[in-house]
């Protein structure tokens, strides 16, 4: 872990890993979409619209996972002063925001035929919306304070305070009577979904995770290189 | 302890003599209460139904409006930096600042709001629950506003960002505050239960905000 603090070494490792993750993502995505769209049976109540689940649920999982990851990375960055940790969180944030938006948008498209409305202000939807705003606020901090150590520490505070929302999103369907269905996969007593739907769902989730890792490694590389360019520009200006 | 009371006393005196931000917040609150019935139409039944929620939203916005300046002058003239070097833990300093903000902005607005409820046709039997919920909630509201101010203190135009970061965190307080003051929308149905949760939220903020705010301020000052 400590060796990765060397950006050069980190970039080399990331470049080595990235093509493999990208390949796995493509394979999983093709397989998952085939299983989800062609193979999976229709739901006896929802008909074809149940297939929205395969793009909606993994996006929502990733939205929560990425925010938790950011909070964890910032926590590690504060405790161990690992220089890559803050960059890792920063690179993950825009991707997480996209996943949150995807979950909201696909959920809305699913809600119209199933619930008869694009949007309701119930606990799960509202807390997810709040998560999206937290992502935006977090990104605003980085864009306002530049990229130095100060920005990293302030972003840490924002990310860690906002983490309070993650368990609220997760348990919102248990705590309040919600139009959104309660947890049916990650719950005590095992999943309540049939394996013919569950297998494609997990494959899609893995594909989403692979996509996240690919984009995240790319974003971190871009961030490290941007900083290097910035340092070089400063050095050049100093010489001139 | 002596240093803390001195700090609180100094800040209170400054606010009372300048009266700037707190007075603006009250004026802003009045303006929002004026605009709402004009925008929604003067339907008395509708106003009665939305009065608690409207007053709560107006309260949150007014408090945030006054928040931007909490640390501004101390940051600019360097006294904040001096305070980090003192013997008093910086978390306590942040707490003292929050207390002053609560006493000068949060609490006055919370007391004033239910009175303005009469302009919005607030049913008389909801005045007391609304006052209680606002007084209990205003402590947490002020604390979070202080956190926002600590995060954005170094920015020239920190106001919009402060709102973007802090308003989402106000959601639970708004939900339980409104449900305490309007029994019709109460989630658990019980005013007392909502007030208890609101109190819990304020107490949680009382513990966590000073730590987070002092971390943010120290990042600005290093």
In brief:
The complex is a heterodimer of chains A (240) and B (222). Chain A has helices at residues 7-39, 53-80, 83-115, 123-145, 149-162, 165-175, 195-239.
Main features:
heterodimer, A: 240 residues, mainly alpha, Four Helix Bundle (Hemerythrin (Met), subunit A), 7 helices, globular, B: 222 residues, 10 helices, 80% helix
Q: What string gives the helices and strands of chain A in order?
A: HHHHHHH
**What's the CATH topology label of chain A?**
Four Helix Bundle (Hemerythrin (Met), subunit A)
Round the Cα radius of gyration of chain B to an integer and report it. 18 Å
Q: Spans of chain B with pLDDT under 50 lasting ≥5 residues?
A: none
Structural class of chain B: mainly alpha
Shape of chain B: elongated
Work out the number of β strands of chain A: 0
3D structure, described in words:
The complex is a heterodimer of chains A (240) and B (222). With 240 residues, chain A is mainly α. Chain A has one domain: Up-down Bundle (Four Helix Bundle (Hemerythrin (Met), subunit A)). Helices cover 78% and strands 0% of the residues of chain A. In chain A, helix 1 runs antiparallel to helix 7, helix 2 (53-80) runs antiparallel to helix 3 and helix 2 packs across helix 7. Chain B has one domain (2-221). In chain B, 80% of the residues lie in helices and 0% in strands. Chain B has helices at residues 2-18, 20-40, 44-67, 72-76, 79-85, 90-116, 127-152, 159-166, 171-181, 191-221. The radius of gyration of chain B is 18 Å and the shape is elongated. The two termini of chain B are 25 Å apart.
């Amino acid at each position: 872990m400590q060796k990765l603090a060397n950006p050069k070494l980190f970039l080399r490792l990331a470049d080595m890993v990235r093509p493999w993750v990208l390949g796995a993502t493509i394979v999983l995505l093709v397989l998952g979409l085939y299983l989800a769209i062609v193979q999976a049976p229709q739901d006896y109540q929802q008909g074809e619209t149940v297939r929205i689940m395969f793009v909606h649920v993994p996006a929502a999982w990733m939205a929560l996972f990425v925010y938790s990851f950011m909070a964890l990375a910032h926590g590690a960055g504060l405790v161990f002063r690992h220089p890559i940790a803050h960059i890792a969180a920063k690179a993950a944030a825009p991707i997480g925001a996209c996943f949150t938006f995807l979950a909201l948008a696909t959920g809305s498209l699913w809600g119209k035929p199933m619930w008869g409305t694009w949007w309701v202000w119930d606990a799960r939807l509202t807390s997810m919306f709040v998560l999206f705003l937290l992502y935006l606020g977090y990104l605003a901090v980085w864009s306002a304070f530049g990229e130095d150590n100060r920005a990293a520490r302030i972003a840490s505070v924002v990310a860690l305070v906002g983490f309070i929302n993650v368990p609220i999103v997760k348990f919102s369907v248990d705590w309040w009577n919600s139009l959104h269905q309660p947890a049916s996969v990650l719950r005590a007593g095992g999943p309540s979904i049939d394996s013919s739907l569950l297998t494609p769902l997990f494959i899609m989730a893995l594909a989403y995770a692979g996509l996240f890792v690919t984009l995240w490694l790319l974003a971190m590389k871009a961030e490290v290189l941007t900083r290097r360019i910035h340092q070089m520009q400063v050095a050049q200006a100093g010489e001139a | 302890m002596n240093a803390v009371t001195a700090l609180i006393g100094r800040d209170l005196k400054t606010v009372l003599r300048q009266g700037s931000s707190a007075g603006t917040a009250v004026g802003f609150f009045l303006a929002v209460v004026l605009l709402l019935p004009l925008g929604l139409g003067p339907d008395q039944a509708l106003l009665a139904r939305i009065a608690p929620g409207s007053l709560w939203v107006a309260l949150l916005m007014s408090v945030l409006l006054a928040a931007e300046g909490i640390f501004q002058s101390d940051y600019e003239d360097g006294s904040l930096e001096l305070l980090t070097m003192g013997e008093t833990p910086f978390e306590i300093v942040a707490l003292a600042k929050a207390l002053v903000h609560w006493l000068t902005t949060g609490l006055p607005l919370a007391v004033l709001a239910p009175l303005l409820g009469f302009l919005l046709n607030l049913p008389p039997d909801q005045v007391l629950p609304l006052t209680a919920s606002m007084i209990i909630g205003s402590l947490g509201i002020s604390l979070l506003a202080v956190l926002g101010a600590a995060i954005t203190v170094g920015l020239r135009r920190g106001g919009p960002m402060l709102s973007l970061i802090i308003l989402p965190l106000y959601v639970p307080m708004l939900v339980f505050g409104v449900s305490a003051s309007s029994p019709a929308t109460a989630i658990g149905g019980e005013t007392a239960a909502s007030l208890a949760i609101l109190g819990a939220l304020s107490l949680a903020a009382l513990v966590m905000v000073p730590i987070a705010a002092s971390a943010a301020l120290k990042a600005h000052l290093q």
